[in-house]
Design goal:
Elements (H helix, E strand, L loop, with lengths): L4 H18 L19 E3 L6 E2 L5 E5 L5 E4 L5 E2 L5 E2 L5 E6 L2 E6 L4 H5 L3 E6 L4 E9 L6 E11 L1 E3 L7 E2 L5 E2 L7 E3 L10 E2 L1 E3 L5 H36 L1
Antiparallel strand pairs: 1-17, 2-16, 3-4, 3-7, 3-12, 5-6, 7-8, 7-11, 9-10, 10-11, 12-15, 13-14
Helix pairs in contact: 1-3
């Protein structure tokens, strides 16, 4: 049985509303619909690489093909190649002491290979650092030093030009709009909240109510179509 266009649109609304509900507990999630938007909250976690960006700021990321996207999700980890990554493997961009160009933040290969990268963590000003432990081969003296990898970049978009939604946690810049790239705790940008989990901007209660409303609307539309079909059959029987 083929569905009428109105029914298909109603089903799409159900799917869209369900998408917001499913993203309710995803770190950094932004809802599709403004009527289920809620202020972001953060929960303390025992993870030195889990942070939350200040309001209006986005982490800049890149994938293996070099495509740049933006996210509010700050639940990071160190990938198998030593780069700071999001949950789904996108590489976090930042700056290093060698220059101001954006590049994936990566632990030095020699220290990784020798297992000298201890206590890898993010600081409030966006610095990715670790503790390097080494032993002098001549004196056998053990030394510990803080080593900075680089600094996480934050993107801010001009007023009224929010990034374009890809899904609940991934966004791209609108054509012709160039975001301002800065750093936490600099250029008027607030610092990162460290050792926290961003719970996203989805109001789960409002989301569930809107999803229920979408189901009710679809059921009413189906009932109307059924009644219309019955009425048409009666008219045809009367004309026979």
């Amino acid at each position: 049985m083929m569905l009428a266009s109105g029914s298909l649109e109603a089903l799409q609304r159900i799917a869209d509303r369900a998408g917001d509900v499913l993203a309710a507990y995803t770190p950094g999630a932004v809802p599709r619909f403004g009527d289920v938007h809620a202020p972001a909250r953060v929960l303390p976690v025992d993870d030195p690489l889990s942070v939350a960006a200040p309001s209006g700021a986005w982490f800049a990321t890149t994938d293996e093909r070099g495509a740049r996207t933006y996210t509010r999700s700050g639940s990071f980890h160190i990938g198998s190649d030593g780069t700071l990554q999001t949950i789904d493997g996108a590489r976090i961009l930042g700056t290093t002491g060698s220059g101001g160009a954006l590049a994936p933040l990566k632990l030095p290969e020699p220290d990784r290979t020798l297992g000298r990268c201890g206590d890898v963590h993010l600081e409030a000003d966006g610095v990715l650092a670790y503790t390097r432990t080494s032993i002098d081969p001549r004196t056998r003296e053990r030394s510990v030093e803080r080593t900075v990898v680089g600094r996480v970049a934050l993107a801010r978009f001009p007023a009224g030009s929010n990034p374009q939604r890809i899904d609940a946690t991934h966004f791209s810049a609108v054509a012709g709009i160039v975001p301002h790239i800065g750093a936490p705790a600099a250029d008027g940008v607030e610092p990162l909240a460290t050792r926290v989990r961003d719970t996203g901007n989805v109001d789960i209660n409002a989301g569930l109510q809107r999803l229920s409303d979408a189901y009710v609307a679809f059921s009413a539309l189906q009932a109307a179509h059924k009644a219309e079909g019955v009425g048409s059959k009666v008219m045809m029987d009367l004309l026979k």
